[in-house]
Each structure stands twice: as structure tokens, then as C-alpha cells.
Design a protein that fits this description.
The chain has 139 residues and is mostly helical. It has a single domain (3-108), classed as Orthogonal Bundle (Helix Hairpins). The protein is built from two helices and no strands. The radius of gyration is 34 Å and the shape is rod-shaped.
Length: 139
């Protein structure tokens, strides 16, 4: 394989790495969303349990305040992750373009090489035909 083909293969590998990184970000995002949903479910369970406990309303208010703060923190992480995901998407698009450019160049180079090989073969065959014709005439 020529150097251009090797560069195209490496570029495709970089695209795959960017895709894996994007998938990892998506998994992290999903985990954060699940944690936020779990906090909401916990709040509902605690609200139901607060009626049964002595000092329940005060404990519930403290719990809800802490839960709200934790949710804000998780949402801030989610926002940061979304920004990072956008950057990752841009990198992926750039890597795809570069990989495609290199693949096209490699394809063109192969096509030119194939064309040159075909011309050489045709010329060699023509030379053989001409030599045989000349040999027949010489007899």
C-alpha cells in the first residue's frame, strides 16, 4: 500500500476513535439524565415518607433543598457535557472530511496507476503484434 493509502487508513481510524469518544459522551449524558430522574423519584418517595416521621416536614425541606442543589449540579455537568459533545461533533465532521479527501486522492492515484498499467500492457501487446507482423513479412 502506498503512503496515501496509509494516510487514508489512518484517517479512517481517527474517525472511528472520534465516534467512540462521541459514544462515550452520549453514555455519560444518559447516565446524568438517569441520575436526575432518580433524584426526582427520590423526592417523591421522601415526600410520602415525611408524613410518617417526626419532624418530617423540616427534614423534607432540608432534603428537597439538598436535592435541588444536587440537581443543579448535575444539570451544570449536563450542560458542560453538551458543550463538549458539540465540540466532539465538530471534530468528527472534520475528521470525516479529511478521511474522505484522502480516500478520494488514493482512489485517483490508483485509477491513474491502473490507467498507466493498462497503457503499458497495451503498448507491450502492440509491440508484440508489430514484431510478429514484421517477422512474418521478413519471411
Amino acid at each position: 500500500m502506498d503512503a496515501l493509502g496509509t494516510l487514508a487508513r489512518l484517517a479512517r481510524r481517527e474517525v472511528d476513535e472520534e465516534r467512540r469518544a462521541l459514544a462515550a459522551l452520549d453514555q455519560q449524558r444518559k447516565a446524568l439524565l438517569e441520575r436526575i430522574e432518580e433524584l426526582s423519584r427520590e423526592a417523591a418517595r421522601e415526600a410520602e415518607a415525611a408524613d410518617q416521621l417526626p419532624g418530617g416536614p423540616m427534614l423534607l425541606l432540608r432534603f428537597l433543598g439538598a436535592r435541588r442543589e444536587r440537581e443543579r449540579s448535575l444539570r451544570a455537568e449536563l450542560d458542560a457535557l453538551d458543550r463538549e459533545r458539540l465540540v466532539q461533533l465538530e471534530r468528527l465532521a472534520e475528521k470525516r472530511l479529511e478521511a474522505r479527501r484522502l480516500e478520494r486522492l488514493a482512489e485517483r492515484r490508483r485509477a491513474v496507476a491502473d490507467e498507466l498499467a493498462t497503457r503499458r500492457e497495451t503498448k507491450a501487446l502492440d509491440d508484440l503484434v508489430n514484431a510478429r507482423a514484421a517477422h512474418r513479412q521478413a519471411r
